[in-house]
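User: hey, got a sec? need Fe2OG dioxygenase domain-containing protein folded
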Amino acid sequence: MAAAIPSDLSEFVMVKGNGVKGLSEMGLKSVPREYIQPLEERMMKVVSGEFIPIIDMANCDEPKVQDAICDAAQKWGFFQIINHGVPLHVLENVKDATHRFYQMPPQEKVKFTKENSPSNHVRYGSSFSPEAEKALEWKDYLSLFYVSDHEAQTTWPSACRDEALEYMKRSEILIKQLLNVLVKRLNVSKIDETNEALFMGSKRINLNYYPVCPNHEETIAIGRHSDVSTLTILLQDEIGGLHVRAPNHRDWIHVPPISGALVINIGDALQVMSNGRYKSIEHRVSANGSKIRVSVPIFVNPRPSDVIGPLPQVLASGEKAMYRDVLYSDYVKHFFRKSHDGKMTVEYAKIHSL
Ligand SMILES: COc1cc(/C=C/C(=O)SCCNC(=O)CCNC(=O)[C@H](O)C(C)(C)COP(=O)(O)OP(=O)(O)OC[C@H]2O[C@@H](n3cnc4c(N)ncnc43)[C@H](O)[C@@H]2OP(=O)(O)O)ccc1O
Ligand SMILES: O=C(O)CCC(=O)C(=O)O
Ligand SMILES: [Fe+2]
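Assistant: Yep! Here you go:
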């Protein structure tokens, strides 16, 4: 016999720390009504035979590789990379560590919810913005904002701390390589001490956990959104489920898992700084009826105290600014306080001419 849905859902999921994982493990016949998405969010036309570009980074000094990166960032906002230099064991270890964190009992995980966490920079949570959302999402997350090694050592959960830090550290060269290539097309000669903080002054790593879902077609794991980062480096496992908006703005394209590859996407901050040249593309994750999935994005961001706006180097030729200057932490708070709403976050910074 299937178990009954807990009468107080937020008490069970968040206050007690069970997460959506706890709901999934009850063997429910269908998800609680709070997780049922409106029809328009469930209907998505996934096109087959179309793929985001796959770029081999082995020779990333070559102009044709650099062009491929910039072209992909302009047209697709998303691409996969292989031979990226981040050791495969580092990627495997951080996926294992993600499973290890979620395997802990709820009494351990609950120590990291917003209410209990030892630091505002460490947060275990479930649906994105439960107060604001029409329907909840079928995923749990652990979000770790990097400030210093010392803070991470003392506040990040030991089940995944070392592996998350290692993944972040070993991705540093790749992040700089990608940004150097991308900013060159924006007439910024290189990433150096004068501009590094603006492009990559803060990092957040999320450990996402997507439990098995009974009536998975009626809900969603992550709703339509664009990231607010400069760049996101996403590690996904072999299950699949990530979809990105096609360049025709109508259809969706699946991002097939490729062993050892990383998915790169442009975030809103780089869209704003490039005055719209690079695109932060809407994406979503579907729930799975038979398999658990994990993913580990590193969000590379400006510092919260930075002001983001179109770069002077981009506007130098007389191009009109499409975005105003905004304080990055205000932008991120705006994103976190509302439900996922596709590409709407960037409207916050858009200049609407009269
Ligand atoms: C979680 O599910 C997600 C997440 C995403 C994320 C996509 C990204 O691109 S993340 C990259 C974001 N950039 C940064 O984190 C760097 C800059 N950081 C900051 O500016 C600040 O750390 C801050 C995020 C603005 C937090 O500011 P602070 O004033 O110190 O803190 P609060 O007052 O606690 O937070 C404000 C507001 O945001 C909510 N919030 C904070 N952190 C998180 C988090 N990790 N996850 C979810 N929500 C968060 C917090 O609850 C506050 O809201 P209230 O309503 O409670 O006031 C993509 C897809 C996903 O599904
Ligand atoms: O899990 C994925 O494939 C994507 C996750 C994502 O979009 C996010 O965490 O912002
Ligand atoms: Fe995302």
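Quick note: The chain has one domain: 9-347. Let me know if you need anything else on Fe2OG dioxygenase domain-containing protein.
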